[in-house]
């Protein structure tokens, strides 16, 4: 009997590991694609407003999930007076994360953007310790500090330095860390489910975000943008909007099956491709040896974290949605 149970436990561990790896790979692919598409729209096509692009992503998320629920493809609770209490503070974090992320993408070269995004890993590790009670092991901490050190080295010799860009990206790091940790907490509580969290995040913030875009003149400047008739631009703009939904879904899946820290680091790990492609895409990267060395140290540390995270065999207690488990702390 014990042998049968051991076999079942081993099979459960294998299935869980497959789900963890596939959800992480899905998030990495979605994050990579939306970063490149956003950079093309905002820099190569010089679209005037990252706020309006963010509105398009919110609207796409609302429409896709509303239609899916109408067709009985997904389920999530209907809107009532308790929803705002159950989802808070995720909508505010969601809007801040989207706005600062798109703004940072526009202001900085992709290699520097991706390097500075690694500060979100350190912030996530700290928040996990205080909010979820999860303490990272020494191998994880060492790889995180190496990533941040490489980013600092790259920033020390960034000849395209921009106060606006650096501020937006560091704010985005904070919002990303908070989003991952609080999303993990909400997913573990199972109050709204992943589809409810995605839908109401976008629904609650689309009106305030529209008001901000109108007050700043972004709606007017976007309406006057001369390339709306360019089918290639329009296709990439719509792709960015849809990818906003895909990215949100992939974040939910990765956070559900892994830890918030792993989700954050996987998002930075995919930046290995973005870092090197970014030296070509957008045309705003300026090479210097110190900057290049720093970027590569950060990339290698990302690979090191991935190795120490996924090399070990998951323990039987690693149950899905256990808020107090030590999943992915090695």
Automatic annotation (TrEMBL):
<protein>
    <submittedName>
        <fullName>UDP-sugar transporter UST74c</fullName>
    </submittedName>
</protein>
<keyword id="KW-1133">Transmembrane helix</keyword>
<dbReference type="InterPro" id="IPR004853">
    <property type="entry name" value="Sugar_P_trans_dom"/>
</dbReference>
<feature type="domain" description="Sugar phosphate transporter">
    <location>
        <begin position="24"/>
        <end position="303"/>
    </location>
</feature>
<feature type="transmembrane region" description="Helical">
    <location>
        <begin position="138"/>
        <end position="156"/>
    </location>
</feature>
<dbReference type="Pfam" id="PF03151">
    <property type="entry name" value="TPT"/>
</dbReference>
<feature type="transmembrane region" description="Helical">
    <location>
        <begin position="47"/>
        <end position="66"/>
    </location>
</feature>
<feature type="transmembrane region" description="Helical">
    <location>
        <begin position="234"/>
        <end position="252"/>
    </location>
</feature>
<dbReference type="GO" id="GO:0016020">
    <property type="term" value="C:membrane"/>
</dbReference>
<keyword id="KW-0472">Membrane</keyword>
<feature type="transmembrane region" description="Helical">
    <location>
        <begin position="195"/>
        <end position="214"/>
    </location>
</feature>
<keyword id="KW-0812">Transmembrane</keyword>
<feature type="transmembrane region" description="Helical">
    <location>
        <begin position="259"/>
        <end position="281"/>
    </location>
</feature>
<feature type="transmembrane region" description="Helical">
    <location>
        <begin position="162"/>
        <end position="183"/>
    </location>
</feature>
<dbReference type="InterPro" id="IPR050186">
    <property type="entry name" value="TPT_transporter"/>
</dbReference>
<feature type="transmembrane region" description="Helical">
    <location>
        <begin position="21"/>
        <end position="41"/>
    </location>
</feature>
<feature type="transmembrane region" description="Helical">
    <location>
        <begin position="287"/>
        <end position="308"/>
    </location>
</feature>
């Amino acid at each position: 009997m014990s042998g049968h149970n051991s076999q079942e436990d081993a099979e459960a561990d294998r299935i869980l590991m497959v789900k963890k790896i596939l959800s992480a790979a899905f998030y990495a692919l979605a994050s990579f694609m939306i970063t490149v598409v956003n950079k093309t729209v905002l820099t190569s096509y010089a679209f005037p407003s990252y706020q309006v692009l963010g509105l398009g992503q919110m609207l796409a998320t609302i429409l896709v999930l509303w239609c899916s629920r109408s067709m009985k493809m997904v389920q999530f609770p209907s809107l009532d007076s308790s929803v705002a209490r159950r989802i808070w503070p995720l909508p505010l974090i969601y809007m801040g994360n989207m706005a600062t992320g798109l703004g940072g993408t526009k202001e900085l070269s992709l290699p520097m953007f991706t390097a500075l995004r690694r500060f979100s890993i350190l912030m996530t590790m700290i928040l996990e310790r205080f909010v979820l009670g999860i303490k990272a092991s020494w191998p994880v901490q060492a790889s995180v500090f190496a990533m941040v050190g490489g980013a600092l080295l790259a920033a020390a010799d960034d000849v395209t330095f921009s106060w606006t860009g650096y501020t937006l990206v560091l704010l985005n790091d904070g919002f990303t860390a908070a989003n991952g940790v609080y999303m993990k907490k909400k997913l573990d509580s199972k109050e709204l489910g992943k589809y409810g969290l995605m839908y109401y995040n976008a629904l609650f913030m689309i009106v305030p975000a529209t008001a901000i875009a109108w007050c700043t003149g972004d709606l007017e400047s976007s309406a006057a943008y001369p390339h709306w008739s360019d089918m290639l631009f329009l296709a990439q703009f719509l792709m960015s909007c849809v990818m906003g939904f895909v990215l949100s879904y992939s974040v939910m899946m990765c956070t559900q099956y892994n830890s918030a820290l792993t989700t954050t680091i996987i998002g930075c790990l995919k930046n290995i491709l973005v870092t090197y492609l970014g030296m070509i895409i957008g045309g705003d990267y300026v090479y210097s040896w110190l900057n290049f060395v720093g970027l590569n140290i950060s990339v290698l540390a990302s690979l090191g974290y991935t190795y120490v995270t996924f090399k070990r065999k998951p323990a039987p207690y690693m149950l899905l949605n256990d808020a107090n488990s030590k999943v992915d702390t090695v």
